[in-house]
Specification:
With 270 residues, the chain is α+β, with helices and mostly antiparallel strands. The protein folds into two domains: 3-214, tt1808, chain A, CATH 3.90.1570; 215-270. The chain contains six helices and twelve strands. A hairpin with a 4-residue loop joins β11 (188-195) and β12 (200-206). The protein is elongated and about 120 Å long.
């Protein structure tokens, strides 16, 4: 099956369904800082993880104009109090316009909170990410699911997730035997893979059936591979047709030679 077309079919099949939120798209509200003195990524490990993960999610949700994906930008969740803010590495909001880009996300103005948040652990934030932020995201902001992941390969693997159950209680998700977690909110499966050449433990999203969501570069390579396979198959068919034609001509020539010998033999016998 065509890999690209197969993915596009599954993309529509597994995409979550949700209503449009009756809020107001808000790029910026005066008095709420949208920048701080912290760098976007703590290390190159985090930089590769964040940008790759963002691109994969962006590609997957590209067909839905009501999905906003934030990357290392502030979420303000209490009007009038600028201290009530967080800046997660990646967050996804359903039901709000994808564009325009926001400088920060204001939950009361947009009328929505992120459905899922991802933090990639660093030495300076790991303790908060594992502890205080669980309650901030799930209880204070109303996020449905919260995930943390350690992208630096030399550090112990750590991929955890929490969600709110039907009673509103915070529960930690149970990983599968491969250490992966399934997001009910996003209808996506997440599992990390080790990249020895970059020393990054890369968290990746997958469709529920295990189909990986690729980056644009990986997609380009897939298309090139598919084209190479198609060209190779066409060449094999062409070679097979040439061989069959050559074999048919050989048989035809052999039959003609045999008929000639038979005619000569018949003439000799007379």
């Amino acid at each position: 099956m065509d890999t690209v077309n197969d993915f596009e079919f599954k993309q529509r099949k597994y995409m979550p369904v949700f209503p449009k939120i009756n809020g107001k798209t808000t790029v910026y509200i005066e008095g709420y800082p949208c920048e701080d003195d912290e760098p976007m990524a703590a290390t190159n490990f985090h930089g590769e993880q964040i940008t790759t993960f963002f691109e994969q999610l962006k590609r997957y949700f590209s067909i839905n104009e009501l999905v906003y994906i934030g990357i290392d930008s502030f979420i303000y969740y209490h009007e009038g109090d600028i201290t009530k803010s967080v800046a997660p590495d990646i967050y996804i909001v359903f039901g709000v316009d994808k564009y325009p880009h926001r400088r920060s996300f204001y939950t009361w103005a947009e009328g929505a909170a992120p459905v899922a948040v991802f933090e990639f652990l660093s030495d300076s934030t790991a303790r908060q990410d594992r502890n205080e932020k669980v309650d901030v995201y799930l209880s204070d902001i109303g996020v449905q699911e919260y995930f943390i992941h350690q992208p630096e390969l030399k550090k112990p693997a750590e991929f955890r997730g929490w969600r709110r159950d039907l009673s509103g209680n915070t529960v930690e998700m149970e990983p599968d035997p491969q250490g992966g977690l399934f997001s009910e909110a996003l209808n996506l499966y997440f599992r990390w893979e080790e990249q020895q050449h970059t020393h990054v433990r890369l968290l990746r999203p997958y469709l529920p059936d295990g189909t990986p969501i690729t980056t644009s570069l990986e997609e380009h390579h897939l298309r090139e591979a598919a084209q190479a396979r198609a060209e190779g198959e066409a060449q094999r068919r062409q070679d097979a047709e040439k061989l069959a034609a050559t074999e048919a001509q050989r048989r035809q020539d052999a039959e003609a030679e045999l008929e000639k010998l038979r005619a000569q033999l018949a003439k000799f016998q007379r």
